[in-house]
C-alpha cells in the first residue's frame, strides 16, 4: 500500500493566532518568553513568524488554557470558562443522532455551565438554516449584542469558525456553507475572510451567523465515544485546521469511517444508503475518482495510525486498540509494512 502523508505533519496556520495567545498570557501577568520556551520555541519566532505548524499552536493553546484556567481563549464567552467544559459538552452531545440535536443539546449544557454567557443557536429561515449566537439562561443583565460587542470582531469570527469545524467533525464531512454574515463593518483584512470560510462573507448584517442549506442540520452524527476521545486529545488542532477540505465522494466516505477502527467499519451497502445512492453508483463514482471502497478503508486505517502517532498522549497500546489490533506488536508489523518505518521511528520524525 502506498504511504499516506499525515495531514497533521504539514498543516500551518497564521502566526497571528500565536500572537493573540501571547497577548492573553502577558495580559494575565505571565512571562511570555517562558511560556514559549516551555514548548521548545523562542519568543522571537512567535512574535515574527507569518505561519507556524498547527500542531505546535495546538500545544501552545492547550498550555495557555491550563495556565490561565480559561477555555474561552480567542472565542466569545462573556466570562472565564472552567477547564474541562468543552470535554463535558462533547460527552453530553456525542450520542445525539444528527447535527440539529447536537446543537440543541450543546445549548442546554451551556445554559447551566458557569462562566459561559454564549451558546450556539439555530436560526430558521425560508430557504436556509443558520447557526448563530444565543445568550444562555443565566439571569445576566447584559444583552446578547453587548456581549458580542465587548469581545469584538475577531472573537466572533473565531467562534463561528470553530463551531463550523466542530459541526463538520460530527458530520464526518465538510459542511457546505451558503454564506457567513457579521453584524459589524468590514475589518481591514475582511477580504480574506471568504477564503477562511470558503464561501461568500457579508458584513453589516442583522446577525452574526453561519448560513447553510436547509437540510444541512439533518445530517447524521457519525462520531462515537471512541473517536471523541481521540478528537479531544488533538483539540484545538482539529478546530483550527479543518479536517475535511472538499466534497468528493471519497472524502465523504472517509468521514463516515471516522477515527475509530476498533469497531467494524460499515460496508458499501450501509454507506451507500447513508449517502442516498445505490451501491453501483457509489462504486462507479469512486472509480471515476481513481479509487475504490476497499482502498479507502485501507488508506483510512493507515492515515488514522499516522494521526494517532502525532498525538503524543496516546500510547502504542492505545493506538493498536483504536486501529483494531489485539496487540501492539501486530500494529508495529502492519505499520512497518505500510510505510517502511516503525511507529516509533515515524513518531520521532514528527
Considering DSSP H and I runs of 4 or more, what fraction of the residues is helical? 40-55%
Biggest sheet, spatial arrangement of strands: 3-4-7-5-6
Shape: globular
The helix-and-strand class reads: alpha+beta
Quick overview of this protein structure:
The chain is of the alpha+beta class and 350 residues long. It is built from 18 helices and 7 strands.
Overview of the molecule:
It is a single chain. 33% of the residues are buried. The strands form 2 sheets. This protein has a 5-stranded mixed beta sheet with strand order 3-4-7-5-6. It starts with 11 loop residues before the first strand and ends with a helix. By secondary structure, the chain is an alpha+beta fold. The chain contains 18 helices and 7 strands. It is 51% helix and 9% strand. The model is unreliable at 1-10 (pLDDT under 50).
Present the secondary structure layout.
Elements: E1 12-14, H1 15-27, H2 32-37, H3 43-48, E2 51-53, H4 54-68, H5 85-93, H6 99-111, E3 118-124, E4 128-135, H7 144-151, H8 153-171, E5 177-181, H9 193-197, E6 201-202, E7 209-213, H10 225-234, H11 237-240, H12 249-257, H13 268-275, H14 279-288, H15 293-309, H16 316-322, H17 328-339, H18 343-349
Parallel strand pairs: 5-6
Antiparallel strand pairs: 1-2, 3-4, 4-7, 5-7
List keywords for this structure.
alpha+beta, 9% strand, two-stranded antiparallel sheet, globular, disordered N terminus, 350 residues, 5-stranded mixed β-sheet
Amino acid at each position: 500500500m502506498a504511504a499516506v502523508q499525515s495531514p497533521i505533519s504539514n498543516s500551518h496556520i497564521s502566526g497571528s493566532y500565536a500572537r493573540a495567545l501571547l497577548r492573553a498570557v502577558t495580559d494575565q501577568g505571565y512571562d511570555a518568553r517562558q511560556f514559549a520556551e516551555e514548548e521548545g520555541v523562542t519568543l522571537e519566532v512567535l512574535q515574527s513568524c507569518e505561519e507556524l505548524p498547527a500542531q505546535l499552536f495546538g500545544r501552545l493553546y492547550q498550555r495557555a488554557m491550563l495556565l490561565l484556567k480559561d477555555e474561552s481563549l480567542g472565542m466569545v464567552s462573556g466570562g472565564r470558562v472552567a477547564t474541562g467544559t468543552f470535554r463535558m459538552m462533547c460527552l453530553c452531545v456525542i450520542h445525539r443522532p444528527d447535527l440539529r440535536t447536537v446543537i440543541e443539546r450543546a445549548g442546554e449544557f451551556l445554559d447551566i455551565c458557569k462562566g459561559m454567557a454564549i451558546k450556539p443557536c439555530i436560526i430558521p429561515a425560508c430557504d436556509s438554516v443558520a447557526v448563530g449566537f444565543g445568550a444562555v439562561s443565566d439571569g445576566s443583565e447584559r444583552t446578547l449584542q453587548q456581549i458580542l460587542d465587548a469581545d469584538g470582531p475577531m472573537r466572533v469570527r473565531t467562534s463561528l469558525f470553530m463551531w463550523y469545524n466542530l459541526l463538520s467533525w460530527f458530520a464526518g464531512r465538510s459542511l457546505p456553507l451558503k454564506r457567513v454574515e457579521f453584524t459589524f463593518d468590514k475589518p481591514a483584512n475582511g477580504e480574506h475572510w471568504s477564503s477562511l470560510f470558503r464561501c461568500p462573507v457579508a458584513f453589516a448584517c442583522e446577525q452574526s451567523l453561519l448560513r447553510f442549506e436547509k437540510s444541512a442540520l439533518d445530517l447524521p452524527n457519525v462520531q462515537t465515544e471512541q473517536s471523541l476521545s481521540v478528537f479531544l486529545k488533538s483539540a484545538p488542532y482539529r478546530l483550527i485546521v479543518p479536517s475535511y477540505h472538499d466534497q468528493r465522494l471519497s472524502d465523504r466516505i472517509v468521514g463516515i469511517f471516522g477515527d475509530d477502527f476498533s469497531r467494524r467499519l460499515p460496508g458499501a451497502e450501509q454507506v451507500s444508503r447513508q449517502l442516498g445512492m445505490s451501491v453501483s453508483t457509489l462504486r462507479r463514482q469512486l472509480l471515476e475518482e481513481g479509487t475504490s471502497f476497499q482502498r479507502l478503508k485501507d488508506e483510512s486505517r493507515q492515515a488514522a495510525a499516522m494521526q494517532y502517532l502525532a498525538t503524543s498522549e496516546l500510547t502504542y497500546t492505545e493506538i493498536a486498540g483504536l486501529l483494531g489490533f489485539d496487540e501492539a506488536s501486530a500494529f508495529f508489523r502492519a505499520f512497518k509494512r505500510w510505510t517502511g518505518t516503525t511507529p516509533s521511528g515515524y513518531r520521532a520524525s514528527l
